[in-house]
Design brief:
Blueprint lengths: L3 H9 L5 H10 L3 E6 L9 H12 L9 E6 L7 H10 L4 E5 L1 H10 L5 E4 L21 E3 L8 H12 L5 E6 L4 H16 L3 E6 L4 H11 L4 E5 L3 H4 L2 H10 L4 E3 L2 H5 L4 E5 L1 H16 L15 E6 H6 L6 H6 L2 E3 L1
Parallel strand pairs: 1-2, 1-3, 3-4, 4-5, 6-7, 6-8, 8-9, 9-10, 11-12
Antiparallel strand pairs: 10-11
Helix pairs in contact: 3-12, 4-5, 6-7
Length: about 325
Amino acid sequence: MISRRAFLGIVAGGFLAAPLAAEYKAAKVPLIGVIVPEEPASPREPNIAAFRQALSGLGYVEGQNITVEYRYAHGKDELYAELASDLVRIDVDVMVVGSWQPALAAKKATQTIPIVGVGMGSDPVSLGIVASIARPGGNVTGSSWLTGKEFAGKWVELLKQAAPRITRVGYLNDARIPWNVTALEEVRAAAHAAGLAIEALEVRNLHEVDSVLTKISRNRGASLIVPGAPLLATHASHITALAAKHNLPAIYGGRVFTDAGGFLSYGPSLADLWARAAVYADKILKGAKPSDLPIEQPTKFELVINLKTAKALGLTIPQSLLQRADQVIE
C-alpha cells in the first residue's frame, strides 16, 4: 500500500491532476497517534475513556471519520522513543502523549508532526518541551501538571484530617523531577505548621521504595505522601500495596492510586486533561498551529477517599471530609 507521503510526492511531481489530489485530501480520514505511559487500558479506564468521549462529543467516530492508533509503554520509560518513532513511521496527523517524558521523546522523533502533551510536568519550559506557556513555539502544545503554590501543602492538611493521630510524614520524592523538590518545601512548611515531623524519602527506582517505607514505618505515627511522579504513578498498584504492607496512611497525587487501593488522593483530574487534549487535537486537525495554542494548566482537581482502605487501617473518616470528597470508594 502506498504511503500518504509517497502519494503526495507523486502529486507534487505532476503525475496526477490537481483535482484528483483535492478529492483524495477531502476523503482522507485523519489519523491520531496516542502514547499512553501505563498498561493497555480497559474500555472503562478513565483517562483514555475521557479522551474517547471528548472525541465523540466533537463529532468523531473511531473507524469512520477518525482513526486512532494507541501505543502503550507498560510503565517502561525506555519504550517512549520507539513508540514515538513508530507513530512517525505510520505518518499520523497528530500525536497525543501522556506526561512529559513521552512528550520529549515525541519532540525528538519529529519537528513537524503536531504533538499534544497531557500533563507535561510542572514546567514544560524548564523541561525543554516548549519555549513559553503562552506561545509554545515549535510543534508541541497541550497541558502541564502545574498546580500553583501551596497546592502540595493541602496533602498535609487532608492527611492530618483523615488520620489525626499521625505525628510524622514521609515524602516519597523522585528528586529527578524539579517540581517534586519544590513541592517538598511546601510540604515541609505545612507539616511544621501542623506539628508533624517531616522526612524526605528519596527514590530513583521502584526497587528502593520498599526499603524507604520499611524505614519510616518503624516510627510510631508515621504516614506517607506520594506525589504523582511518573515513576510512582505508572506503578500505582505496587506502591499502594507497599503502603498497605507497612500500614501507612498515605495520600497520593492522583486518583490512579486510590483506584488501585490507595487511602486518599488529591490532585489534578488527569481524565479532564485527556479530554482537553482531544479538544486541542481537533483544533489542530482543523488548521490551528501548536505554536499558537497556549499550554493549559489544570483547572479541575479531585479528592478521592477509599473507605475500604480506611477500614483496613483502622481509621474512621470524618463526615466533614467525606462531604468534601469528589468520590468515595466503598
